């Protein structure tokens, strides 16, 4: 099995209303998002075309989250909840008989990230 990985960045603001500390106040991040799709190669020798993967992520995720106030989309936008939301948006578009969405990594800072996989 082969895995294809593509990385993206987006800027967004949020605050954690159910959290008591610095992050309960409005603040922003430059998030780094890594999408992994694993499966078998097609006739062209690809699991999934990087161009197709980019278009799906842009349409289903980045168009909503980039330069957004994430609280308007996800009620308690912790990194964990954002990663789960991204998975739910992408899984229907990145799963078929040949490949499937395998893992999402979402960095909130350069040294802090969450991994979501099923």
Automatic annotation (TrEMBL):
BP terms from Gene Ontology: tRNA queuosine(34) biosynthetic process
Residues annotated as the enzyme's active site: 23 (proton acceptor), 67 (charge relay system), 108 (charge relay system)
Record key words, sorted: Lyase, Metal-binding, Queuosine biosynthesis, Zinc
Superkingdom of the source species: Bacteria
Known EC number: 4.-.-.-
Pathway: Purine metabolism; 7-cyano-7-deazaguanine biosynthesis
Keyword Oxidoreductase listed: no
EC class of the enzyme, as a word: lyase
GO molecular function list: 6-carboxytetrahydropterin synthase activity; metal ion binding
PANTHER family per UniProt: 6-PYRUVOYL TETRAHYDROBIOPTERIN SYNTHASE, PYRUVOYL TETRAHYDROBIOPTERIN SYNTHASE
Protein name: 6-carboxy-5,6,7,8-tetrahydropterin synthase
Organism taxonomic ancestry: Bacteria, Thermotogati, Thermotogota, Thermotogae, Thermotogales
